Protein 1
Amino acid sequence: MRIRKELLFGFSLMAIIVIATAIAMPLPWKWTPGHYGLFMLSMVVVTIMLGFPTAFTLMGMGVIFTYVAFQWSSPAPVAMKQTLDLMAIRAYGVMTNDVLISIPLFVFMGYLVERAALIEKLFKSLNLAIGRIPGSLAVATLATCALFATATGIVGAVVTLMGLLAFPAMLRSRYDIKLSAGVITAGGCLGILIPPSVLLILYGATASVSVVQLYAGAFLPGIMLAGLYMAYVVLRAVLNPSLAPKPPPEETRVELPPWAEKLSSGRRRLALPTLLGALASGNSGVPRRTAAAQLALALLPLAMVALPVVAVYGAATSPVEIVDTSGLQVAGESVREALAGGVEEPPSDGVQEPPGAGAAEPPGAGAQEPPAAAAPAATGVEEPPGAEKAAPAPAAAGGENPAAGGARLATPRWFWIVAAAAVLGLALHYSIFTLERLQIFKLLLGSFFPLSALILAVLGTIIFGWATPTEAAAMGAAGGLLLAAAYRRLTLDVVKESVFLTAKTTAMVCWLFVGSAIFSAAFALLGGQEIIERWVLSLDMTPIQFMLLAQFIIFVLGWPLEWTEIIVIFMPIFLPLLGHFDIDPLFFGLLVAMNLQTAFLSPPVAMAAFYLKGVAPRHVTLNQIFAGMMPFMAIQVIALVLLYIFPGIGLWLPQVLYR
Amino acid sequence: MQKVLLGIDKISTAVGKAFSWLIVGLTLMMTWEILSRRFLDRPHAWTFDAQMQMYGVLFMTAGAYTLAKSGHVRGDVLYGFFAPRVQATIDLVLYVFFFVPGIVALAWAGWRYAGESWSIRERSTIMLEGPPIYTFKAFIPVAGALMALQGFAEIARCVICLRTGAWPSRTEDVEEVDVDKLKEMVHVKDQDIEKLDELVVKQERGAEAPGKGGAA
């Protein structure tokens, strides 16, 4: 029964295309070459829908119609020669395309990160870290998805893995089935949008838009979308707690190591004073060395905040004008805080880290601790628990004051706002930083921080122009190797699998590109583009109308076609039109990326749903999963509208960085 | 016949897998180059050509390998729901109409293109004394020929399927989403999912009889 419905859906889509073509086109004997181009276009869509490999459909049709176009003006042998020349040049062009070259590297990185098997740790530690907020499991799922999908970019694997990990956890906590399914499917698709994503590389290569700017532009919209998802989940959980009940206590219990058991003696104790006390008294039953090492760990968040703040201070007040990175810092901080409920997350410092180093950061390296930071904190702390909350604050602020003298520029006001926010965040952090939380922090060190460091290092080097996207991709792949090695998963089998999968995925994308290169050449030669342009211009649309129409067409195409096909076939048609309407191809690309993401969630062809169904318990129906995805699809549309109304969300960062 | 088909698969797979290791080389070479340029102040101009060639050869030779494992992207609105015979008919017709002209043109065009380059021992012009690129261009006809061979195998498979009503088997290969492997990775067993199913059923019952639903 369901199968029939699917077939009906596909065939009716196909029929609509055929009928629309038949109506729009003049009678066959009146066709100009341009009409042959349009005919070719609709034929390609129909053939792709039939299910023949797209790359070869494009290639074959491209070759045939290129020949048709050439033989209008030249005799057959010449036309044949021209066709072959064009074919070879187009193929060679793809082989030497310096944008596409980052695809295998990013794909390789993705497969390696996936196989490093840190998703389980990541999910568990994030879940423990944000256990207090409503709907914590769902929010942790989204955060895990966002991070993991960003690093791997493989929708199927992320949804499957989260279906195995998070779905059972949520069901055991009696979460609503639909909500749980929606969270996993929506979260798994985030990797399409958040850079480094292959979609943006492909768009950049097709539209000749700088991938760097696309990455910078897609970053905030991606974070915004993830944030909207989380806000929605929290809101639902607050309004109707039975949808997302608190998990049973045994699921959120943190195992304390023996030394911590001894120190806490069954009560909830703040980490800093307890450890300092143990260090000072020496007769708490815990060796001083253990206490010192743990204290160093506990002070790591302080260092993570203080170092960037000091660095920003140096940059902001140094006599030389420096790119305004401060804004990014603020954004990164507030976003991070929003992500984790503003409690445990020390603001990200990964942006400033050297590319390779962050990935392999050894958990618990006490040696990196600046002793200066520890000393004032140690002296400032006395017994009353209220006092030490503030202690790190003056320590952090005091360190900067003396430097303010000399020939430095006056400290801008925004800096003090940033610094105050950092101090406040730290105070808040340490006021709830119990021994249990120290334990959670250590778990995060082993999963969350290496992965975010990898992503931020890759993105940071690209966005700040320290490396080309290709170079950053190579560094990312090397980082993936290191990550897999750090988790002791770098076996020959893992490398082999990743290498072969990389080859297949790259071949799939790049052969598609070879096909579309010859196809778009044929389309241009036949003059199909001119007919479309004339028609669109004759409609006399405003830019907004055109934009809406374009996005709507892309959305509809997302049903029968894959995003790769839409980008390589249809973007070359839309792009020349953008100039007429004064639309920035960069902005258009961001909208397209956001839009195509919805295609993964729109039934009945939503891939994410089928991946989840594949690992879900038997009685979870596809309809339940679809129903769960709907609100998230609505959020995507809202995000799309938001991005359209406030283009600054996407364009602000590229403008700040590359004016 | 099946033996011949699997033999062709084996050739494509072996070539594709052999060249797929270039990704490791590419990663290491570029990482080393970046480090060398940044920290040793010793850039190497030839790496630009080298990375291009590694990438080009990697994906061109992997084309036939991917085809042998049915890895090329297909529109999946209808195809998956067709009976094997219908699938085979569509494939057969479209292989003959589109694949054959496309790939033959590619191989032939590549042959002439590479031949011209080979006869003048063409070198890269990106830098002075660039590395040879005629060998690189030679991969176009090579990949085209491999593709054509694999395409022949695929066409034969369509014919077999039309006759028998079932697709002939292929050798297995590593898959992007291998559910069993992923289950192993996160330590989930089938029994666990079975157990979970009871919870699902319970929740659905709870939904039918409101009031009992939220009770944990």
Note: Chain A touches chain B through 105 residues (CB under 8 Å).
Protein 2
Amino acid sequence: MTWADLHRASEAAAIEAEEAFRKGDASQAALLYAKAAELEQQALGTVDPTKIRTRGITAVSAVSLWYKAVAYERAEQLAYSMLADPAIPQFARVDLRNLVQAIWTESSKRAANVSFLPGQVFVSVKGGEVITGGAPLDLIVGKVQTIQAMFYRTVEFIKDMPLRLRGGPLREIQESCRPWLFQAAAGSYQFSVAIQEAKQLDFFKEDTRPDLVAHQFLEILKATASEDLVQLETVVPKAEYRNVFLRLSRNLAPTGKTFESIELRAATADTPVALTPEARKVINHTIKKNRPIHAEDSEAVEEEVIGTLRAVDLEKDFLNVIVDSQALHIVGLGDAMDDVIGPMVNKTVKVQVLRGARDSLRFRDIELDE
Amino acid sequence: MNDLPHLRIDGLHERHPGLTEALGESYAEAACVCWSRHHQPPIIVLLRHDGNDEFRLIDFAVPDARVRKAHANEIDATEMGAYGVSLAAVEDVAGLVAVGRAETLTGADWYVAPNGAELDDLERCIRLEVSGTSAGASAYINRLLREKLTQAARGESNLPAIAAVVGFKALEVAISPLGAQG
């Protein structure tokens, strides 16, 4: 059989496998992917070595198919043998390295002896001070904290719980749906987040598919960055949840000073949800539009204060910001929440305030000023 | 309106030898689901390519409950629908059809070639990079296309490729070559 015959047969099996995977039949999908991988590896063996491009594409395809067949050892062996071949073109070399990284991540998950919900979210932070495989620690720690907060909020939203106004998630939530961080293939600075499966089988309502946590997380994120308010209201019908998701999403989005974009995508999707400085402006606009104006504030003038957030006390309803060595006491935090403001402590922030009688400052909004 | 040429998303497998009938139908169904979220048929879609703006008429079938349920996952539906529309669009404006696909870490890449070309290898095929947005406006479609062009300029892939970005609400398809063609 020629390369074309074998590759065509592999394509047909891979299309069937994809169909089975979409229908939720993971075991049938794995069998079909293995059949496709076997055929593609045979095709690889028949490629004329002078057809460098065809050989590179077929090598990546065969390793990807073994990976999707959950045959990690076969995938790894083939990837290494191809990487050891000096004739493999550069584009394929990059893809093969990414596949090796993905294989390691999946193998680690198996070794961890913990079950994860299907679907994980890949996060990549790009541009500015971020280099391939490296990024400023404070930047990444901040983003990871916000992603964790957003995952917990998504679980609470799916479980139809009342909005949590203070403190962290319930212990039950933290233990049942713990987000894990994994290394991901480096292209910029990348990592993936998977959700540990709840031990308690009825943790989610009967009509809720737990494998949709990652999907719902991405849908919410995408809707917050959209100019289409109807889309956001459809995805998150509860106004109080919309408010917190918008603020968490803004915490993730770049201003453009330190980095240029953060992209989040599902393992099975090519199209990421990309948060850019442009998206941040959209989110800010939506937040501003939805901000209530209290009667007592209607005459007050809105000002912007930039300084270091030193103290927050949500119970006593105040925060302190240091501006030019002077502490400003801002009150009336209203619906501000721990997971939104907490990661901003000791960082430079931009606070919108209303200056009232005797120079008192009332809180309107807060965001990081990278 | 009726004088406009039609963009056919049905029967894709009859014109694109790389597509199976089942996959072609799934792509077309997903596209109908995505359009029907925002529009009623018939619709006029703007194809933007090489500085040209061309309009095409699409009289899509309104999906029934079964089809909507099958494509309820919006991310998957947008991705599949975008593949179907992109293949129909590059066929229309550039005479390129899907001749093969190859798996990647996150999915699969389609390879296109001039209609009638024999597929003995992938040496002269062009990779089709597809993005889709359900509700994104024209500015967002431009941004997605710019990102693809920036990636290509940074040399993240040295394969000749065409990018197609499909906006279902915006009724637009933006197409642009990426890197050197050959």
Note: The first helix of chain B runs from residue 12 to 15.
Protein 3
Amino acid sequence: MNLIVGVSDMKVTNDIEATLVTYSLGSCIGVAIYDPVARVGGLLHYMLPESSLDQEKARKNPYMFADTGIPALFKAAYKLGAKKQRMKVIVAGGSQVLDQKGFFNIGKRNDIAVRKMFHKNNVIIDYKDVGGTVNRTIKLAINTGETCLKVSGKGEKKI
Amino acid sequence: MSNINSIIKKINRLTPIPQVASKVMSIAQDPKSSMYDLSKVIIYDTAVTANLLKVVNSAFFGLPEKVDSVHQAIVYLGMAQVVDLVLLSASGENLQTAQEGYDLEAGELWKYSVSSALIARELAEKKGVKETHLIFTAALLKDIGKVILNQYVKDSFDKISALVTEQNFTFREAEKEVIGIDHAELGAMVAENWKFSPKMVEIIRHHHRPQETSMSEFESAIVYMADTICMMMGIGVGSDGLAYRFHPEVVESLELTETEFQKMVAGFVEKIEQVEAMINV
């Protein structure tokens, strides 16, 4: 059963029948986490780097921003018994329009935001596919932890 | 050339846009026209009326009661908004189909088109542009060329993709190089064929390079920006990805600040589900 994670959305589950899916990342970033012992997985699809843009929106939907969405993702997984040291972490998305520079480059800013947070909290990324101009989809099967990355026009691969 | 001619001939295979679209556009441009004139033109097309009422009653508008007449829709939403929604209700036929060449499933190009149109209108209103219907419709129809070019992109995908990944071509430039014509040019020809205004034709032709247009510069810049925002949000992005060029001078001409830009993105993200409900994706 596919559990769809929309734009600015997050889902965490220990249902072994479930596959978490997020489509069409564009400049957004998808963060997938999985604890193989607890068999708990989570997937976040955030759109913007910093919640300081609009605190009210961040309160209503913390998954819109990296700095509020990422902690919420990990906390929700801990609640289901996941442990940070066992966690497999995958990051994908953050594409850019060609020649994009400065503040319009949300893809790059989203990438910097996740790197900063992980560095501060000692989280190691196991697999990363960020940047470029492609459109990505992430799938995470809770039963096995198998993760697939689809790049539009180029097919799907296991990671 | 024969290849290009045979591609252009396929314009006639599209479902033509219903006449009601051009009629409501001219009513919108006539300051003397009344609400009564508008509703009279719309109800004549029963299919478009049915679509319109479905859209008006969707969660996107959150109206307090069910609207079951065009007249009532105008009372609630105003003439300007209803004109846009008629254009939307009349445009879906071609754009709702799957486009395998672009790796877009059924409904994805439509969601992209509607989202671009809504963002473009918001931006036009913010910038005080009067011709919002022109901008809305141009943004809605800008990728109509993809519906025809789809098959050719599918056949030549490897060549197009190689130019993009290895030689810094944009996807549109690669279409032009490999097939001989790109989706924006072809879209402009469709708009001409459907007797849209020269301004509309021009905006569609230049929606990826608005700095090259000789007319409707500001309007083209708005449609371009709306398209860029959609791509960044991953809406309707397929095998072409985000492989289009960013033109900082165009963005400067719109005088958008960083906060304004990000707030538009954040605001639209909140509406995505309602947009999906509105168009039944």
Note: Chain B is about 65% helix and 0% strand.
Protein 4
Amino acid sequence: MAKMKFLCDEERCIECNACVTACKNEHEVPWGVNRRRVVTLDDGVPGEKSISVACMHCTDAPCQAVCPVDCFYTTDDGVVLHDKDMCIGCGYCFYACPFGAPQYPQEGAFGSRGKMDKCTFCAGGPEEDHSHEELEKYGRNRLAEGKLPLCAEMCSTKSLLAGDGDVVSELFRNRVVRRQGRQEAWGWDTAYNVK
Amino acid sequence: MKLTKRNSALNTTKSGVDRRAFLKGSGIAASGAAFMSLLPPTMLQKAQASESGRHSYDEGDIKKVRSVCSHCSVGCGVVAEVQNGVWIGQEPSFEHPFNLGSHCAKGASLREHGHGDKRLKYPMKKVAGKWQRVSWEQAIEEIGDKMLSIREQSGPDSVYWLGSAKHNNEQAYLFRKFAALWGTNNVDHQARICHSTTVAGVANTWGYGAMTNSYNDIHNSKAVFIIGANPAEAHPVSLQHIFRAKEKGAPIIVVDPRFTRTAAHADQHISIRPGTDVAFVWGMLWHIFKNGWEDQEFINQRVYGIDDIRKEVAKWTPDEVERVSGANEAEVLKAAQTMAEHRPGTFIWCMGGTQHTTGNNNTRAYCIFQLVLGNMGVSGGGTNIFRGHDNVQGATDLGVLSHTLPGYYGLSTGAWKHWSKVWDLDYEWVKNRFDQSAYEESGGKPASPMNTKGIPVSRWIDGVLEDKDNIAQNDNVRAMVLWGHAPNSQTRGPEMKTAMEKLDLMVVVDPYPSISAVLSDRQDGLYLLPASTQFETYGSLSSSNRSMQWRDKIIDPLFESKPDHVIMHKFATKLGFADQLFKHIKVNGEEPLIEDITREFNKGMWTVGYTGQTPERLKLQAANLHTFNKTTLKAEGGPCDGEYYGLPWPCWGTAEMKHPGTPLLYDTSKSIAEGGLTFRARFGVEHDGENLLAEGSFSVGSEIEDGYPEFTGDMLKKLGWWDDLTADEKTAAEGKNWKTDLSGGIQRVAIKHGCAPFGNAKARAVVWQFPDPVPIHREALYTNRRDLVEKYPTYEDRRSFYRLPTRYGSIQAQDFSKDYPLIMTSGRLVEYEGGGEETRSNPWLAELQQDMFVEINPADANDAGVKHGEQVWVDGPEGGEIKVMAFVTPRVGRGVVFMPFHFGGHYQGKDLTDKYPDGTVPYVLGESCNTVFTYGYDSVTQMQETKVSLCRIRAV
Amino acid sequence: MMRVFFLITVMISLSACYEDAEITLHQAGVYKGKLDTHSQTAEQREAILAKRFGQVQTDR
């Protein structure tokens, strides 16, 4: 059974923000809510690296574990989703998440923090597939249409990969082999004495 | 804990049942209750999970429409999904050879054009300081009357028609023709301030001034050299191709004063002082000549004048290179050695190299470097010039420029006669549309404004402000039409404001109001006409690699906007030359037929081979994207078998000849008929006693196994090939050459015998017609290296250049370095494009860059007493000042500050929000960096010097 | 008359005390939200999406 995963190849990520914008486009995400973000380390100095981050759809999801109303569930594909109707907007999942994936819209039923919103791996939510409720609350359901998340499909350099973990790692393995030691990854030049 | 069922409404934005409500059904903008009431329950369909189709949330077929992104010149394919006339979705175009489905942030946000919340919705007029809505009829009527009265009082040259790189090819061609029939050469577009120095420098080196290879061809490069360019932000999808080369082992070298996002992925980054490109490139050549790494055989066969270059390069010892540019010997040697040892390598440049007073020197130096290494005309090599806007290449080729007609024919009598013939108009009638007096001389004889270069966009304000006796035309520019061109991309903001206020009439034709609407304090005489975007119309465009792509129409024009060619029809009708303008172009109602326009320029663009790309051939290619090989761009099988994607120009001859396009320029390893090419014989057959034609180098299949001049009818006769022409072709070709033979017979026969119609010559490293025949280094006008000004001075002031007095030395003579110690440079951000009004009005993009800023090195910040995130004043030496956020970062070296040029809407600390028409204020406003950028223009093309000036920073 | 009026008023005001009898009792660690249904099985989806991945990533 497939287990959906993201992988951002930070050697190719050029911080173009296509992934961020594609997500906004596809789900009409409002200003202030960022399901996906590009994080840049060492901005402006040699060694600068960018990586695109959204919900990692953890197998043992901390958000799921701490939610006081247990509004999270994991689909058969390994996608972590939640029921916004049940969400009370407490923000505890935000505490728990190591990646900062949970977001809270600026307006909402709770004043400054509304219902939690996060990346759905373009898999919609616990409403009927392709219903208007699903569209409004969670965004489009691309997985049910046989498509992959738009952020990965539109990545400018094909650095963001999304799909079944096995399939993604197969491709990435091929890529690494093809690069033949030109990795700028940490420690590579120590191990292989490549300058 | 008791839980109750929550209301399913999520109030994320204002709800409103208006025209957009239907669109809201496809997005999640409306509140649940308001929305649910719009649709009967039967609309909620159950899922039919289809593999590739978008699920339909509403009734109505979903149409898939193919188009091309309208932001940059990469030309990424776009698939739009349209339902009931509403643009509901954007899908990746996986089969498209240029982007393979990828986009950058701007491309991923295109669907917002279908929302258009901040667009200019209807024509507006400023009356007594307030915006008033008017009808199209009234606007055209009033504008037309004013223009006709200006024409009568001052002549046609007093109306400036500033066109756009965002026109599609048909609109660009029509615009140039429009200006010609109005009777002026005061017509220009963004290329002037972007790659004009490239086109001039490169075309004068080997014949054509365009990208020689393609983005995809970079897969084959063994090394990638990038100078003065930041493709990671300006052409993100091109990185996909550069990475393919990199991951096969190609070293990437980036030369840039800043450590850009592209430099972060490079193997070597070299920081040079802004404006020292020639010094650096000659520094590399010094090592190449010293070590004998040049390709002598290539030089002997195909290059003229290298010995003069050797003499100049000998002066650029490592010490001098370091003194002038700041690059030390080790890094220069390493770069040179890398390029020499990894051939074929490609050479990429953008505005960092072009936007200088010596821009044409820079571009020629880059070309000479590639010639010396023998990297031209090979796959993986070439000078891959990344153009800017989506159709700046097309608009340049189609002549929306003040110094030429379409196809680079120039403005000579011969050029006018050629185009008059194509337009089927009487040459004398066209001539009489112009001002009949003469204001300057050419070749010792008085030259009429019809044959003299018009004022370029970089200087339009001087056309307004300069004393009219000093301008080589009858009167000042009194009416300015900014058609798809932002004003904040040109320098000298305060003077522009004054110029705008002095005009009699100002007309802005744009999908957005643009800064033109708010910069000046005009109280009236200012019109805003809403133009449609390229997604609301259709036509062809030319991407940077010379491929022509066809766009289909995605949605109908929004609000009251109209496509450019429809607006041109309205103006032409009012101004009285519509019959001539559309003589052979069918007009349906008020819309000229796009395909007829394509066919018309197919009939006349022989110089650059825009003749074989008919609408039918282009549409067929657009429907068969998947058949094109993703590296060679050649269709393998399928209906377009053998053709290259986009039929890259030159696509010789008529469509019947079925030329496949020329993917790599100057590649002699293929026959001309298969897309190969030689260097153009444009400069004569000999100079100073030396042979200018190629020696021993010729295309595969060439019957002339040596160099040859450009083809004329007489030459065909001499060669005994005249009788290969048909009878009709003979009639047309008699006494004509390959550029003026409207039957295309000369081209056809030349190619039949394996020869390039434009000859087979050497590229020339010495351009004797230019101010600096051998490219040399000259200090910028505003330089803080006073110690170098004596040895490397700028040019002398000129009395009249493109009709205007132009200053050089008189500015450089003043020392501003004490008061303005920091070097100021400008550039791009990935989220925005150009003047920025379009992209800053897109909420998805605007959210990512909300503040205008100036990048300052930590040391300079401490010297000036400013901290990161604070507001600071940036003062320019010509009196402009702007208030921006300080962004303290080591990205930019000590002594240099950087600003993006996409912002506008603040002016010298004042917020101009109130001056925008209601509902059109972009989400993000900021100061325009060009408020402080200064005077300085290239010595050949009048390109503005926006990459090096001086400034000072002070805390607020 | 006043009494009838008073009685009706009380009855109407008491009707606001109606409560939705449907309550969900929370159990720790158990998801009790709406069910997410799919029209395909996980295996079918796996195959379709693997094919799609090949379309998206054409890393030649």
Note: The mean pLDDT of chain A is 88.
